[in-house]
Structures are given as C-alpha cells and as structure tokens.
Records
---
Amino acid sequence: MAQRLFGTNGVRGIVNEDMNVQLAMDLGRAIGTFMGGRVAIGNDPRTSADMIKSAVSCGLMAAGAEVIDIGMVPTPVVQFHVKENGLSGGVMITASHNPPEFNGIKCVDADGTEMPRQKEEEIERIYFQRSFRSRDWAGVGTLRRATGAVGPYLRSVMSLVDADAIRSAGLNAVLDCANGAGSVTAPRLLDDLDVRAVTLNSNPQGTFPGHPSEPVEAHLQDLISLVKASGADLGIAHDGDADRTIFVDDRGRYLYGDRSLAIVAEHMVRENGGGIVVTPVSSSMAVEDAVKRAGGEVVYTRVGAPVVARKMIETGAVFGGEENGGLIFPRHQYCRDGAMTVAKLLEIIATEGPLSELVDRIPQYCQDKRKMTCPDERKETVLSGLVEYYRGERVDTTDGVKIWFEGGWTLVRPSGTEPLFRIYTEARTENEAEKRSCDCQAVLESLLEEP
Ligand code: MG
C-alpha cells in the first residue's frame, strides 16, 4: 500500500514535532507540482500559522506556483476565493477543532471543493518519490498578499438569503467564534444583517484562551449562560476555522448538530418544492423524517464532508451536511460553510418563528453507542455474515452495515485504526436503543465465534 500523509481532514500534527517546517515545505513543493498556476493560501489564527504558511508558500513557489496569500480567514473563504477567481487550487493552514499545539495543511480543488482522495494520493506520490517540479531562476513563483477576500464571500452569502426579512426581524444573538478565524467574518455578517450581537471569544487568538475550539456543549457554557441571561433569540458558535456552526436556542438549549441539520434540510426542501438531501449513513433519523415531511428524499453516503459534497454534485441535491454542524449549500459552494449556515438559520427564524419552536417540531430519538473487539482480519467476514443474517430487511452497506427497523436503525462500522467495531443505534426510546444494540452485538459475537 502507498504511504499516506493526508487524513480525513488534510495533514495534521503537533507543531515542530511531526508538523515541522521541512514537511510543510516539501508538501508545498508537491502541491505546487500538482496544482501549478495560481494558488490561494489562507490560515486560521494558530500561533504557528505564519511559520507553516511561509514554509508551504516557499515550496509552492519553488515549483513555480504564483501564491496569493489571502490572510487569516475561515476555510470556506479560501474555497470561495479559489472558485470565484478561477485559481488552480488553494491551501488552508488549519487544524480546525484540534488543540492549539496542532496545525494542519489542507488542499482545495480548483472548483473550491475539498480535494478528493485520488488527487491527494497523487500529491502523496510526488511527496514520497520527491518528484517535485523544480523551476529555474526565471521560472520560480511569486507571492502576493491580497486583502479583501472576506467582502465578496459575505456579499455572496447575503445574496442567497432574504436579508430584508432578517433585518426587519430585530433579532438578538450571542456569538462565540472560539477565538478562531470566524472572528473576521461572523461579527461583520451579523452587523450587515442588522442582528444585535453580543460577542464572546470573537477576537482571533492562536492559543484559544476562551475554550478549546471544538464546539461541544462542555466548551460552550459561557455562550449558553449568556443566551439565557440576555434573552437572546439564539447563540451561534463556530469551530476554529469556521466551516462548522453549532446553535443554542432561545431557551438556552445546546442543539446537537442533527437538530440544525434537520431544521435547515426541511426548509431547503420546502423552498425548492422537493429535492434530494445528502447526509452520511450515521445521521439521525430526525433528518430523514424532516426531509420526508417536506416532500424530499435522503441519499446516504459514507462518513466525511468531501464524500457528501461529491454526492450532492452527482445527484443535483438541494442541500447536504453532517451532524457536526458542517452544512453545505449548493447554490453557494460545495463545501461546509459557516457563514452561509448562520445566514440561513437567521432567515428561517425571521420567517418561521422562534428557534425553540422549530427545534420542538423535530422528532427526538434516543441513541446507544458501544464498541466491540474484533481482530482486523476477521472484520470483513463478520460484516458479510451480518448482511447475510439480516437478508430481507432494509440494509445499507454504504459505510459499514446499517440495519433499519421500525422507528430506528443500528449501524456497525469497523474502526479504521483499532481492532474493534463501533455499534450505534437510534430508536424511539432508550430501552429500545439499548436492546437493539445488544441484539446486534450478540449476532456479531456469534459470527465471530464461527471458524
Ligand atoms: Mg473546521
């Protein structure tokens, strides 16, 4: 098997340990060799941003690329900039929600989407074989700093929502950017939409002193308290590179990503008079319920935003997204888009009523998650046995094995890194979810015992 460098979210590591200048520069050379032409580069506010970005830029220029540095911006701004300006690609220096000692290098394809795996493999091949293109003195690239990438991005976002309805609704929001890159887009977006905003951690600071940059409930206690204390209509939180958005409703309830995904999915299907919504197999039934209620259809994919985006292009979907708050709006761009998510939810609240009421209309399911040991070499056989066992039922093998039953499903996915299966069940009650997981685990265990 070929050596791998890129994980599911680019190349990541601890700065000056595995993510060092040499790696960044050589990877820049490989990316420059692959992309050529004009390449945009941006970064989140991590303390190592300038160091890693400079090293990648050097590599890009050595391979002859013209580098356009658009500064500290959210990942979707780099993606939008590449697409709108017809560049040959982009690079984002970010480790998204990872702790501040990490940084990462992520590639953007010429159409603004996250780079598909086969192209990453090509870059990996150039990197490991050191088959870099090396230009002579007259052919090396240049670096130009370009300010102003945020303006066109935000204008495009606002052109795709009913801005007048939002402006006249007189909404109040509390905003938490996790001291990340959303600090340069989100306060400005709320201002442009006449939303009165109280801001928290909305000054970029690479040590993430406010809280870790993953927008989970435990990290958003200040946001939740402030929404309650101020009587705001909603709370808004971004992760470190602002491609994802998580919300708190007007009653101060933290909304798991499946809630906002379902609310927006239902709205998008209604707005389009039907259509396809794409989401990974692990997404809540609540999403399918909401989409069906609006007259749409769900298409499931493997887990991972790039796969969701590709499937959306293929099927002409009206909307797609993941439960972690990464929502994709095809009329804007085929990638997770923090500002677009904020603007669309504001429009929905302005036109359909309080967020808490929208949340209460979304069906609730209970979940059970567990792990089970299985040697790597047995995983495939056991999973085929499972499919055989449930023959005749609704079974989906897009990513692991998902078995549907009345009012829920069980999903078994082999871990890519450990000798185990992850078993997820969703059902109407806790008891049911637990029972279904146990039943499935029992089947897996008996299959494992077979010679
Ligand atoms: Mg992110």
Note: The mean pLDDT is 96.
---
Amino acid sequence: MNIQTTPKSQIDAEVLIVGTGFSGLGLAVILEREGTRDYLMLERGHDVGGTWRDNHYPGAGCDVFSHLYSYSFRPNPYWSSTYSKQPEILKYLQETAEDEGIYPKVRFNTTVTRAEWIEAEDLWQVETTTGTYRARALVSATGHLSDLSLPDIEGLDSFTGKMMHSSQWDHDYDYSGKRVGIIGTGASSIQITPEIAPDVSHLTVFQRTAPYIVPRRDAPYSEAQKGMFERFPEMLQDFRKELFWGNESRFPQRLQIPAFLAQIEEMSRGHLEAQVTDPALRDKLTPPYSVGCKRILISNDYYPALQRENVTLETTGIARIDETGVTLTDGSHVELDMLILATGFEATELPIAEVIHGKVGRLSDQWEDGGQAYACTSVHGYPNFFMMLGPNTGLGAGSMIYMVETQIEYIRGALQYLAESGKVIEPDAEAQEAYVKSIHDRAERTVWIAGGCQSWYLHPRSGKLTAIWPDYMSQFRKENGTFATEGYMVRDATVSA
Ligand code: NA7
C-alpha cells in the first residue's frame, strides 16, 4: 500500500535522495527492489559513484577488503584481489546502477542549492541548479569525502605551476620529468607517491604528521577462487562474515586496551624497521601519537618510494607558497613544476548542512559545535529528513558499507512508516540529546580522543568526536539498524489527499 498524504500533484516524488555514491545508490537499490516507494535522486556529478567517481588519481584504491567493501545484497564473486583499485569499484557501482534500474531515477548535473521544509505543506522543497523538486521526505547521502579541503597556507593561489587536489586529478597533465611536490601524508598521498615517483625528476613529500603504516597483505584471487565464490554463494557469505569479525576484533585497539595496542604497535614498528634502514629517516617517519588516533594506513610501497634517490621527505614546516614553489619555515625554498594537495576532505563540517533549512533554521547553524543526530540519522527540527553517513558514522577500522547498509534498513523502515501512516516525524529534542550524550560518553575512552593527535575525526571548534562511531560496528547495527517511532515526535500530516 502506498498512502500518499500530500496530494501527488504537489510533489515530484515521495522521497528525494541527494547523492549517488555508495550510500545513496544502496538505498535506491533497496527501494527499487521493494517497488513501493516513489523516489528521485539528485546528483551534482555526471555519473554515479561519489568519491569513487571523483578520486581517480594514480594508484587510487581502497584499504578495506574488496569482499567487505561491497553490498551484501549484491555480492561480487569476481573481485580481482584482496583490495580493489578505483576503476574496479567504480565499475561495480555503475553496474549496480545499470542492473538495478537506477539510472533513469537520477537527475545528473544537478546541485542542490537550498532544501527547505515547508511546514504548511509538510514537504521538502529542494532548489537545484536544474529546477525545483518537492517531496515528502528528504535523504541526504552526500558522504564524508565529497568536498575537498584546501590547506590554509599563505600564497596558495599564487603558484603558477600545475596545482591539483588529489580528488581532482588532471590526467592530461604529464608529470614525467617534472619537479613535483605533494602536501599531506594521508591515505591518498601514500597511494600517489609510489605511483608517480619513478616518472618525476624529483618528488618532495611535505609531511606535517607521520602516519602509522602496516603491511598491505594484498593478493589476486585465482580463477578457481572466483569460481568457487560464484558457484557457492554461501561460501562467499561465510567469507564476508570472517572478514567482518576480523575487523570487529580490532576495535579494542581503539579503546587502547594494552594487549591489543601492543599488537598493532609492534606490527607498524616492525614494518617501519623492516622497510627503512636509515635511523634518521625512521625517526622522521615515527608518529608522535598513539596508534589508531589517525587512520592506520596500509602500504608496502610507500616507505620504499621515500628512499628513492629522487624523493625527499620534507618535515620542516611550510611557511608559504609563491609563484615557483614552497618556502619552508627555515627559509629554504623548494622549486616545483607541480604541486599536489593531498590534504583531505571537509569531513567534520559537512557542506550539505549549509543548504538544509528546517523548522529551526539552517542545519549548519545547529551544528556549530559539530554534527549531532538521533540514531546518527535524523535531526530534531528537520521533519521527515534522514542523513546517511552523517554525524558519528565513520569508522577507524572496518567497512563503511556495513554502516551504510545499517542506515539503509533504518531509513527504509522510516519511509515505509511515513507512507503507510501518513504521519510526519522528527526526533524529540530530549531523545536526541540523550542519544548524542551516550555517543560522547563512549568516545571519551577511545584513542581518537585520548590518543594525542589532531585529526579530522574531531570537530575543530568543540574538540568533540563527531565523525567516528565510538563503538563496535555490530553495536551500531544493534542500536541504529531498525526504525521505531520511540524517540520521535509523531503527528498527522496537515495536508491530506
Ligand atoms: P587525510 O587523511 O585527511 O590526510 C590529509 C593530509 O594532509 C594529512 O597528512 C594532513 O596532515 C595533511 N595536511 C592537511 N592540511 C595541511 C596543511 N595545511 N599543511 C600540511 N599538511 C596538511 O586525507 P586523504 O585524502 O589522504 O584521505 C582521506 C580519507 O580517504 C582517508 O581517511 C580514508 O578514509 C580514505 P596532518 O596529519 O593533519 O598533520
């Protein structure tokens, strides 16, 4: 049954989903398969894929197991190796959209400029660069890693060579034989560095904080293995479970439980010692904080790349950038033809919050001290609004697809409730506050708060852990995997058919 409270003529769809990355696309697949929800998707890009469409820099790949970094409802027996590269993941998402009939539901090249809850009509009115859309419910699925973060360095705009952020790689630019600099040593940089180092004349890696790195145990799946996964889907599901619980068992590291901490410290120290012989370089590469406080990276070829003749690891701070390169705080100057900004994303202050206006105003104003949401998904003052990968949904270890699928089921249930009951819902302020408090109480005991580092997991003004879920992934599903009206204010919609 599909009870439509708002007259059909006044809305373009029952549900509007903003974003077609892993989260939005996954929700669409489930709604499409269910066949009862009328939905439309708004996408600012030219294709589906989100961060996997945008991040195609040399060496781009995922550091989560391929068989976990894919939908449980669309298992792929054919992943080529333990960890997948960007083209294979993007292809998986494009094939998902194609096979599941999602493409016709997407309005591409459509950027949301303002989404407003119209209380008198009980609907969301969404202004975009290609027109206005109206819907009963709004789902934001714009991700953590979609809007790039530029470093706040004096003179950045004055550089006259080639400059690009890692997420906006220009493949027409030929870096071979060039003097290249890369700012940042996070997940993106450590993938780019070994890939481009052999071709450039010189590469300077500007490191502000050394990351922890552990071995990347990658291997191709044989044709026989793929055949087994294809023939025996239950075997693939068992393998996924094994990988999941393997990840889950690493969470005690994040609680800094000594035995677990020692294990990962030993692994990363051993990797550094095995791969870097020069003690001075090793010192520079030794992180000054507890392991896990920033994302633990996996790579076998980053340390070797840093030891090439034509690569310099620069740990002196950057003072400013000028027309020809980078000036360091000791006054020395590094001449460059190309500057890569591998400086991450706007993950703590999600830009989509700036255009969402509910009963209580702009969402970004409500989130001055960091994002907060009931069940990590809905927000008081924003009726019939759901956010995927919003506050406290990120992970330090594990697959974001598990978190995404948990939210898909929650939102699917909420949308079904809205359609069948004709109600309008929003979380109760007290319920939301209590929920958020329980998250921050749990966060206190984690390495992300207590580990002595500055990371994008923490909100820059409040210092609160707003990007990461501070508990086991299975606990996230237990708490947030099934929609219930408990904790919500529920009322009849004012406009009826
Ligand atoms: P990250 O992990 O946010 O890394 C950004 C890097 O850029 C990190 O090393 C930062 O150093 C460095 N950075 C940022 N601003 C500056 C300035 N102003 N000066 C010098 N260095 C700077 O982004 P990635 O793209 O690598 O990875 C993003 C996520 O993608 C990752 O977590 C995975 O989930 C996949 P810092 O450590 O802050 O000192």
Note: The mean pLDDT is 95.
